[in-house]
Design goal:
Blueprint: E1 9-17, H1 26-46, E2 52-54, H2 61-64, H3 70-80, E3 84-86, H4 100-118, E4 126-129, E5 134-135, H5 139-145, E6 150-154, E7 175-179, E8 185-191, H6 204-215, E9 222-230, H7 238-245, E10 255-258, H8 261-268, E11 276-277, E12 282-283, H9 293-320, H10 325-338, H11 341-345, H12 350-380
Parallel strand pairs: 1-9, 1-10, 2-3, 4-6, 6-8, 7-11
Antiparallel strand pairs: 5-12, 7-8
Helix pairs in contact: 1-3, 4-10, 9-10, 9-12, 10-12
Length: about 400
């Protein structure tokens, strides 16, 4: 795609945001999303100029795993044709509250599970988290270790106060080379005006207004804007609309095209004017992290218990050659669905929080079962040489030695 300074390209990215729990339950949202997914895949088959950014494709993994494999086959073929760009993460996870392991697993386990479902290898370089309440300062380090070079995040605007947060408060630019404390950098873009962009079925007046506002602050080499929203169905007319609206900028030097995040970043990365900076711990919802403390405590307990179970299972695998891959993957998937920004902050009504808490309990049950079985397998291999009395085996999941000449 040719991009010059005199003729900026507006990369319009069609997408749909999926919340596992918000107003409805996870299962209710999945039933609604099935219709949208079928419409998108049919449209991509009929119209080669259409593209789609699967912002939350892993949260909808159960749809791809159904006995009717046609959805999975059509999704896989669209990915191979380059019409769908996958996120390779389980959900738009909360990026501030959890241990770093949860944030990393959103990206590593998400990619692994999607590759297994689609039966193809994926090259995912763009991390997306378009709806979030806070940002972790170490995110560039985590993302680079997960193979992501670019980051696409969303603006959250409070409907009551109109307040927004920015990745660089001193600048109106949406782009930044975000440098982490260890020196790792990711090219980061903040979607403006929000993650709906020009809307799911854009009209000319609003679309051009948004684009012209972006032209005042964004890179002259590449401009990013979404077209979509929550559970947004596809717009069959989008490519034709964008072609018609091209040339509507000042002096007719504006090009708009339906595209995907990776294509946008590959154009932006050549722009030397993108500033470099660090991002502090940003939150636009002060007080949100203190609501429903029991849910936060259960979340951390489940996460730490799952990590301990993995350590024990790994030690047992060295002795037995058996490892509960599927069981632990399912437990992590349930935990990461709960670590999506809305369930994680427990900002749901009581009836929905009941589903969230049940999911936490299932994760804990799996973790305890794996832990007990693994420790029993290890203990069974301990040789006591017929010593009198009942032998006692003490396990520690710490790296440091806990033993000295006087005993533990």
């Amino acid at each position: 795609m040719s991009v010059t300074r005199s003729k900026p390209t507006v990369f319009v990215v069609p997408h749909s945001h999926f919340d596992p729990e918000w107003i409805l339950t996870y299962q209710q949202y999945l039933r609604r999303e099935r219709t949208n997914l079928k419409m998108r895949l049919q449209l991509l088959q009929l119209e080669p100029h259409h593209v789609f950014c699967a912002s939350e494709e892993m949260a909808t993994l159960p749809l791809l795993q159904e006995s009717d494999s046609r959805l999975c086959r059509d999704f896989r073929e669209a990915v191979k044709r380059g019409q769908i760009e996958v996120k390779g993460a389980v959900a738009s996870g909360e990026l501030m509250m959890h241990a770093g392991e949860s944030i990393a697993r959103q990206f590593t386990l998400g990619k692994h599970l999607l590759e297994r479902a689609l039966r193809i290898r994926l090259d995912v370089v763009v991390a997306q988290n378009i709806d979030n309440y806070a940002l972790c300062p170490q995110l560039p380090q985590i993302l680079r270790q997960c193979g992501r070079r670019y980051l696409l995040i969303g603006v959250y605007q409070d409907g009551r106060t109109g307040t927004q947060y920015a990745i660089d408060p001193s600048s109106a630019r949406p782009e930044l080379w975000w440098r982490g404390p260890d020196g790792s950098s990711v090219l980061t873009v903040l979607s403006k005006p929000d993650y709906s962009g020009i809307g799911p079925r854009p009209q000319r007046k609003r679309a051009l207004h948004v684009v012209h506002e972006l032209m005042n602050v964004a890179s002259r080499r590449a401009i990013f804007v979404f077209s979509g929203g929550d559970m947004a169905p596809p717009d069959p007319q989008l490519p034709a609309k964008l072609e018609k609206w091209s040339g509507s900028g000042s002096n007719g030097q504006l090009r708009m095209a339906a595209s995907l995040p990776r294509r946008y970043f590959e154009a932006l990365v050549t722009d030397p004017s993108v500033p470099v900076g660090q991002v502090d711990a940003i939150t636009d919802h002060l007080g949100a992290f203190e609501s429903r403390v029991r849910a936060r405590q259960t979340s951390r307990r489940a996460e730490c218990l799952l990590l301990t179970a993995e350590k024990a299972a790994t030690a047992a695998w060295l002795l037995t050659g058996q490892y509960p891959h599927d069981e632990l993957d399912r437990a992590w998937f349930g935990l990461l669905i709960n670590h999506q920004h809305d369930p994680a902050l427990a900002c749901l009504r009581d009836s929905l929080m009941t589903h969230v808490m049940k999911r936490y309990r299932r994760v804990e049950e799996v973790a305890r079962r794996v832990l007990e079985h693994s420790l029993a397998s290890i203990a069974a291999g301990v040789v006591t040489n017929g010593a009198p009395g009942d032998p006692v085996v003490v396990f520690s999941n710490h790296r440091q030695s806990r033993w000295n000449e006087e005993g533990p």
